Amino acid sequence: MQKRGFERMWQNLKTHGTTYTMGLFLVSTVSGVFLFFHLGTSIFHAMHEWLSMVLIVPVALHIWKNWTSLMTYFKRKVIYIPLLLSLAGGVVFAYPALTGPSGGGGNPLRATVRAMQSGTIAQVAPLYRLTPDALAERLRAKGYTVSSLERTLAQVAKDSGRDAGPGLMAAVAFAD
Prior knowledge:
- The protein is mainly α and about 180 residues long.
- Helix content is about 75%, strand content about 0%.
- It is built from nine helices and no strands.
- Helix 1 packs across helix 2 (about 40-65).
């Protein structure tokens, strides 16, 4: 029974691989444009990432199904310039992050979180319109060990036997 379901799904993908590719590409394009202009980021970010990963399957099937036609692009040598330009475009965007100082480039949100984690309670508290003592109390209420207001958030997490990741950032940002 399970084999039949897989065969049906496989046949569906083989039959409609190109249309799935087109549909998912359209979704990826629209979400990418919104992300580029920083509109609806919370709506489109996960959609764009996950559906772009799903897009890999129909694209692979499309390439497999049209392999003979694809090879003619290589034989006629018309594919090399687009491939080289695509690779060059990727390198242009990756180069600053790959060659910059440690932590340079990349996701600005991650850079902000790293900066927060390396800030002391006294430094971070005003960002949340709290006094250092109020932030320390908030962290203690959530089970963190705060021995000094001059400890960094990462040190507070380590002292508490916890990770300095999203849980700590949520503990800092939210009272409840």
